[in-house]
Design goal:
It contains no helices and 11 strands. With 118 residues, it is mostly beta strands. Strands 2, 4, 5, 6, 9, 10 and 11 form a 7-stranded mixed β-sheet that branches. A hairpin with a 4-residue loop joins β5 and β6. The chain is globular, with a radius of gyration of 13 Å.
């Protein structure tokens, strides 16, 4: 059973870069067919897909966030990471990492609260 765990700062100042890491156990991030995703949920709003990194290392981003988002991976640690630059208070959200299969089945991390505030 795959498990995902987000880690990173819970408080980021406006204009800085938000950085989160997802540590994966029980499955390899290089296994064919899976997309390793970052998804967030601002307070009082629905889930927002931010982007994913594919098993082969290629990445795809939400058009609305593409200019500020980067997703990378460290295969030696079985981790993938999110960087979101130039954050504003509107980026305050619970951030989730997740694994998506080709059949759109999801395995989720527990989520981590990130607040953007000075």
């Amino acid at each position: 059973q795959v498990q995902l765990q987000e880690s990173g700062p819970g408080l980021v100042k406006p204009s800085q870069t938000l950085s989160l890491t997802c540590t994966v156990s029980g499955g390899s991030i290089t296994t064919s067919g899976y997309r390793w995703s970052w998804i967030r949920q601002p307070p009082g709003k629905g889930l927002e897909w931010m982007g994913h990194i594919y098993y082969d290392g290629s990445a795809l981003y939400s058009p609305s966030l593409k200019s500020r988002t980067s997703i990378s991976r460290d295969t030696s640690k079985n981790q993938f990471s999110l960087q979101l630059s130039s954050v504003t208070p509107e980026d305050t959200a619970v951030y989730y990492c997740a694994r998506r299969s080709n059949r759109f089945d999801y395995d989720w991390g527990q989520g981590t609260q990130v607040t953007v505030s000075s």
